[in-house]
Amino acid sequence: MIGACRAGISESNLLATYSLVSAIDLVNARTYAQVHSQEIESAIEENQESYDNLLETAELLSIPGLQESLQESMEQVERGETYSLDEVFGDLE
After folding, report:
1. How many CA atoms lie within 13 A of 53 on its CB side?
2. Digitized pLDDT (tens) for each residue of the chain, 93 residues in all
């Protein structure tokens, strides 16, 4: 709820959207957030990172042919059809 309020969602909108949330719940959430501000900040940052990772994955998977290419690559690895770094890059020294 704290993250939603920080994102600009009003308390009245939260109350209207989530029928099981009461005004007392919002007051309790604000009080908890004040007492446990570091814990709340960490949770919000962690959730944001997970969300960002999910968006990045969705973006990558939307590239035409990428899923098929990845599947084929995994099958090649399973069949042992791989090259060592030395075979690919040779002697770089």
Report:
1. 6
2. 777 777 788 888 888 888 888 999 989 988 988 899 888 888 878 888 888 888 888 888 888 898 899 999 999 999 999 988 888 888 776
Amino acid at 84: S
Spatial distance between the Cα atoms of 36 and 34, rounded to a whole number of angstroms:
6
Contact of 11 with 5, CB cutoff 8 Å: yes
CA atoms of 2 and 8, how far apart (whole Å) = 10
- Encoded amino acid at 93, one letter: E
Phi then psi dihedrals of residue 30, to 5 deg = -65, -45
- Sign of dihedral through CA atoms 10, 13, 17, 23? positive
